[in-house]
Amino acid sequence: MEIDSGTTAWMIAATALVLLMTPGLAFFYGGMTRAKSVLNMMMMSFASIVTVTIAWVLYGYSLAFTSSGDGILNKFVGGLDAIGLKGVFGSVYEGLLKEPTDNMPSLVFSAFQLTFAIITVALISGAIADRAKFGAWVVFSVVWATVVYFPVAHWVWGGGWLGQLGIEDFAGGTVVHVNAGAAGLALALVLGKRSGWRKDPMRPHNLTLVLLGVGLLWFGWFGFNAGSELAVDQTTGLAFMNTQVATAVAAGAWIIVEKLRDGHSTTLGVASGAVAGLVAITPACGFVDPWAAMVIGAIAGAVCAYAVGLKYRLGFDDSLDVVGVHLVGGAIGAISLGFFAAYPFIEPQAKGLFYGGDLTQLLRQIAGPVVVGVYSFVLAWIIGKVIDKTMGFRIPQEDEVAGVDITTHAETGYDLGSVHASGVAATVNGPVHAAAKKVQA
């Protein structure tokens, strides 16, 4: 089939939009951390762009989206025919979720899917803000992408067993958000709590950056969701509109919960609610009607507003609420399809309960997040433990107190002048002194 220039142009634009989401995430996460670790937090997102891009070109695309034959192995992982993107240039993508109507170069499809892999890895970093070794994070990003993300993408989108089972995941509620959220929980447990957690105030240091970041995420998410149709048609428009509707409703639901619970609505709340809505509508955006997108957004915004507090009840330090927003929000969106799915693409995908379907699709939509969540959690915990026992995953306590920016990167996010200098001098007799001297040397 011939390449469709309109589809190709749209997919190149969508790819750029999704790539923009990772710098947007860096702003969002960076603003939520303390001032002394903002650069490290942002570096973790940018490092994910570097490491995942290299791994994807060398073997990731091949493992996720090529065939390993007709046997049982192909249900779980792709083959090695496209190592180094061999043979991808010039070929025509023929479609995964439905029969192809419009076509694009396979290299464009590969680039689009690369941006998904990048941001999935970057999302995990928010769970371990303020206390992770940068080098350990770099190693983790490569290993986790290799043994978790690439196979899971194959399971759902590359012809693997979850896709064959009939799991519906339009743009990554399970593949991206449940996957990243479960891994974030595992790493938060491996690294332990931040020094002073629940005792010292650990408020976002720059809510302006948070709002800038969520604005970029919201903008880029239209490429994330609408681009996942891999064509320019009515479903593209449906995914686009549902993304906007669910996000706006979720942001409103979150700040209503804040007003009722705390007596005031916050900028952090409206930003977090928007992200919760974006996450929840991601698996459903091309399968549901706009009224259902409003319901999904309202549920996600309200539930996630309460879910972020689970870390205090259960005693794990998920620094930037990756679990409460991405794991919970992704699961809400995935499971909602068991009720609201109106436009399944191919057999054996089916309609939800509210559209005449039976319990079959609902059970599938529960099974997908459970399987992926458990797999990601277990593998991330093992990878994290191995790294921690070998090269160490957590920075020393004195470096954490001084700030990971200055001790790891020899930089600070802000030129605080005499204020910063007096802060270092005031701790001359404390644990910060050694870290400060090390950097000054």
From TrEMBL:
Question: Where found in the cell?
Answer: Cell membrane
This chain belongs to which protein, by name? Ammonium transporter
Keywords in alphabetical order? Ammonia transport, Cell membrane, Membrane, Transmembrane, Transmembrane helix, Transport
Q: What topology in the membrane does the UniProt record assign?
A: Multi-pass membrane protein
A molecular function (GO) held by this record is: ammonium channel activity
Which source organism?
Sphaerisporangium krabiense
Taking every annotated instance into account, which residue ranges of this chain make up the domain Ammonium transporter AmtB-like? 9-414
Which family does this protein fall into?
A: Belongs to the ammonia transporter channel (TC 1.A.11.2) family.
Q: Outline the subunit composition.
A: Homotrimer.
Write out the transmembrane intervals.
12-31, 38-59, 107-129, 136-158, 170-192, 204-224, 236-256, 268-285, 291-310, 322-346, 366-384
Instruction: Report if keyword Zinc is assigned.
Output: no
* Gene Ontology CC, one term: plasma membrane
- Is this entry keyworded Transmembrane? yes
Functional summary from the UniProt entry: Involved in the uptake of ammonium/ammonia (NH(4)(+)/NH(3)).
Q: Which Pfam families match?
A: Ammonium_transp
Q: Which SUPFAM superfamilies match?
A: Ammonium transporter
